[in-house]
């Protein structure tokens, strides 16, 4: 597994670096970004927060706009931001060129239907291949947490709930909470997973949370703006709330008055999320 | 003077808003961004920090990438980010379509040569028309400071030095410190101002600083990364340092090891600049 460093920029005493590598899982070259806090140069292995971005994003959006590096540098957290789908000429995108499916919109699942099944395996990439790479090449421990925004909030919740014990904590901004029951999710799931809605349940955070045994869900924080244009039709945090109640899980769901779906919202509350993860990762 | 609000996003308890208006000075429609901290809703008039961006930028780069809102919200500073040149079909750009002159590259001066003189009057726009608009439409006092990056660092220094008493403090990241003596500046000045280099001196921060009477320069902070690709050929902070010595001015010039020319550098040190301005503006 070789990594090509494509950029390196100092940030808050640490380093923002981007790498290209060949992903066996996805069958294409991928780019990811890593923020290494200053403590990474002192030898000790540091815990890692994985950040999953939303529709249309790449590894760059979070690193440029969330303002997470300041506190990550203080807390000694590594942050890893993968891309949002497989990429490259061999990777099929939305047949109509839409932005809510395919390239930039991999939904962090393993597709079972053709022509998607060959490359669209973002779940296995994010949960297995990428952490193996990170832990082999950087001063990263196997203590992991995961967070994300919108489609990436769905991804973070699903990765954590499908893989008990793998993440110490999970959080999300404006997640697609119940993709089986919203237009973005129905479009993506029907293509990636086929028409059998029973198979969709394995990739729906609200379904998974309701079925997770009480006491086995990692600490769970969700922020949602109440002026988010996608709130009612696509995001549906009330489904997550009901699932938490049903499953007997503690969910901190904060409805933030006046905030929208943008990175201005994420930046405003990223510190709380970093502290949430740092506490679970033993950094505070 | 009417303002059309084109977006409004909550950020750290305050608001990031963008406006379009017709500029009489520039003879075209312009867009600017304003960050209003939470204190702006409490009635008192707040001081304003003007931020001037670099080549190719618009009002958006700083607001999206610098991470300034967190501390501005705490300190009660309004931040205003104008565009970097006049815009529109009637505004001539670089004849060769280059990115370092014309559209997105107005150099914050008043052009005297055709075809630039009609629209390229960014100095008067930034120093006079825009503050008048801001102070008429927002809870903004007439206490002003100014900062910027690269071409905008040059702009901030020149606006402050040409207009004694107008700004309480000035700062810059990686400014073009001596534009008369670097390729970017020579290209822009020869076109905007003509071939008589004596006229260029009025728009060169190092010349202006050397000629400013001791004691009449506002508090002056400059940060410069030592891995900035433009450092030697274009930025030349040593010229500013010599000018400060010659003029008897106190200049805090910090060479930051490992940092480049990007917003990752700006974000890493924006807090120090905000505190520098807040101190001069009576907010700390």
From TrEMBL, chains A, B:
Catalytic activity: S-formylglutathione + H2O = formate + glutathione + H(+)
MF-aspect GO terms: S-formylglutathione hydrolase activity
EC number: 3.1.2.12
InterPro entries to which the protein is assigned, alphabetical: AB_hydrolase_fold (IPR029058), Esterase-like (IPR000801), S-formylglutathione_hydrol (IPR014186)
Keywords assigned: Hydrolase, Serine esterase
Pfam families, sorted: Esterase
PANTHER family named in the record: S-FORMYLGLUTATHIONE HYDROLASE, S-FORMYLGLUTATHIONE HYDROLASE YEIG
Protein task: Serine hydrolase involved in the detoxification of formaldehyde.
The family this protein is said to belong to: Belongs to the esterase D family.
Stated name of the protein: S-formylglutathione hydrolase
Taxonomic placement: Bacteria, Pseudomonadati, Pseudomonadota, Gammaproteobacteria, Pseudomonadales
